[in-house]
Write a structure and sequence with these properties.
CATH class of the largest domain: Alpha Beta
Shape: elongated
Strand content: 35-45%
Distance between the termini: 69 Å
Number of domains: 2
Number of helices: 2
CATH topology of the largest domain: Outer Surface Protein A, domain 3
Helix content: 10-25%
CATH superfamily of the largest domain: Ribosomal protein L6
Order of helices and strands: EEEEEEHEEEEEEHE
């Protein structure tokens, strides 16, 4: 069985060293663990032995990330919910008695708006993990619809108590 070929776009570099595959491009650098060796000829990349579907999808996400980048937009919905950036940290006011402080991971860039903010990165897994960590602090309420929502997410609200 022959291994599938991966064609790299112009400006993308790929290397493997000590079980870590690194993909570099204009939007950043993505590294992941993989025991396979890289055999490269021009802009064609082969892995020996061939990649499992899991590592194949991670490699494809890494290539797309360093070329195009990934973006997650989060929206704060609720009275008094705010976010601000201070010294490499995100400080959230989410209705608790104390502010929630999260350190921004390396390789993630944040753009703040009034009630929305964007997270940008080349590493898709790291980006989604950080977005879900933020969302865990205030999951949308099913009675009011307040919380941290992904952009475009619709929360079906339950009917309140009847008298």
């Amino acid at each position: 069985m022959t291994s599938p070929h991966y064609r790299l776009p112009v400006g993308v570099g790929c290397s493997s060293k000590n079980g870590i595959v690194t993909v570099k491009g204009i939007k950043g650098k993505v590294s992941f663990k993989c025991k396979n060796r890289i055999l490269r000829k021009g802009n064609l990349v082969n892995f020996a032995p061939f990649l499992s579907p899991y590592y194949g999808s991670i490699f494809t996400q890494a290539v797309l990330g360093v070329v195009l980048g990934y973006t997650v937009e989060l929206r704060l919905k609720g009275v008094g919910y705010r976010v601000k950036e201070e010294e490499g940290n995100l400080v959230f006011s989410l209705g608790y008695s104390h502010p929630v402080v999260l350190k921004i991971p390396e390789n993630i860039y944040v753009e703040l708006g009034k009630k929305t903010f964007f997270l940008r990165s080349a590493n898709y897994g790291l980006l989604r993990n950080f977005a879900s960590t933020i969302r865990k602090y205030r999951i949308p309420d099913f009675y009011k619809g307040c919380g941290v929502l992904y952009e475009g997410e619709i929360v079906k609200c339950k009917e309140g108590k009847k008298t």
